[in-house]
Protein 1
Amino acid sequence: MAGTGVIEDYVTGLSRTLRGPRRPKLDMITEARDSLLDTAEALEGDGLGRDEAERVAVEEFGPIREIAPGYQEELSNSAGRRLAVLLFVTVPLTAIMWNVLWKVYPAAPAAYESMPTWFVMVARGVDMLQMFIGAVGGIALFALGRGLRRIRRPRLVTRALGVFVWAMLPVMLVSCGALMVGSQNSTGFGDYLPGTVASMVSYAIWLLQLYCASRCLSVTRREPVPAVA
């Protein structure tokens, strides 16, 4: 049975209050609606009219200002976990992809000889930085998973992870830009199709990381509304 009165007004207000990933938020709102409808139907079975049953169900569920902080905290955790998984999985894989690419590049020996002396050092630095970023993602994933029991303010973990990704952006842009300039003199690399594909994949991953980092900053922009005792 679909709610059309007090329950729908309440659920709409709750949805407008919350910020976070679309799917987890939708699941939360659906669960809240289903719970309210079940309560209202039970109250109807006890003899209340539909409108009164919905009103009582909403009162028992609690004011939005009381339940919203808990919902918002979980949405913040969800956004942080998404970004953490993305970093933990894609960043090391990107580093491995580029290492394999250079090893199988047909003109690799001649290409290395034509590169600047600093190229290999910068490339290794980028690899280490990527592994570090992936490790940070793994730590954040643990903190926002099993570590939630010991963390008093997981919202700060999510926000710190978003800030970290944006802080790493200029470092990665400068480093990878230097590698691109250094590889221009390598024999035939500019026309190497796997290299072009790898670059497109790397850019897509970067954009996805920045999008998720922006979501983390958005959902943690303000402290959750304090619950009323």
Protein 2
Amino acid sequence: MSIKQALLALLSTGDRYGYELRAEFEAATGGVWPLNIGQVYTTLDRLERDGLVSRTDGDDARQVHYALTQAGRDGAAAWWTTPVEAGAPGRDDAAL
């Protein structure tokens, strides 16, 4: 699982801002995969560049919220339904 896939999966349940995504990611992985906030925003910038997320207005003007575009929803759905190839030991997607 990549950070990209994880953020798409988290955003599939609703709009979020960066610190929310980081907290939810770390909670979902049981704290065994700490995530740097800079990595979250770098990944969000790439997802936006690739047309998978868009910025939305949040309740607080200081927070930038992100939402999936249709392409992002399609990408998240494809990840959930595509079997993971067996390979070298690493992080187990299903376990995370």
Protein 3
Amino acid sequence: MIAFRNGWQRGLILLRQSFTNGAELFAHLFWPLLMVGAAVALRGRDFGGFSVGALAVPSILGMNAALGMVSLSQQLTADREDGTLLRAKATPHGLPAYVLGTLLLVGGGLLVDLAVFLAPAALLVPGLVTGGAGTWLTVVALLALAMVATLPLGVVLGAALGTARAQGLLTLPILALVGISGIFYPLAALPGWLQAIAQVFPFYWLGLGMRAALLPDTAVAVEIGDSWRHLETLGVLSAWAVAGLLLAPVVLRRMARRESGSLVAARRERALQRVG
């Protein structure tokens, strides 16, 4: 309970700082609104008799939910380099509180970003099913599953990739996976081998689940097999969630054991040398 209370308080403080810092506030607004612009630009294009813009809106929701793991990974790496993680390790109940606070920071910021995107997109992009409590309950449930399936993987990646430079390299394969996951164009239109790769990772399934919730039934005609594949979506995302929840505590504890003052000092020295 002490760790939970401290982590909750830490997360709320970090969230408040995030939304009162000019640069971070700009990022919270700029990227979601940029995606709104992309969806609006695509609404005039047609695939299978359906607006590509309408197909893109739920897909972008799923994509951003999955990309929360990248944000968490980058946050963990930054906290390792500046000594925040070492200080948490040296404090009673500090490491669990640190993890909870960081999850709250990334998860809370992600929910705000998604709301900033979805509110104008629902008004500006025709073809979405946005009425009814069932639709929004499904969206909320999918977002919760998305976070459970992807945020623990962010902890694993942050613990495994020890430098900001390595984190930068991580962005390239993630963007490649996003590009082949049916986010901006239906996966059924891509070659079969790309379809197979995309279906291994959670990006495609999160987008598919969101499309099933926010698009009319007729839109299923542009999906693989003319099916929303609800059971497959639940199964793949649950498998990623189980894998992340099993791996994250082990990798995080191992990484925390290796942290020391000399390692933090060495990272700072290397950073100063790069700047110089």
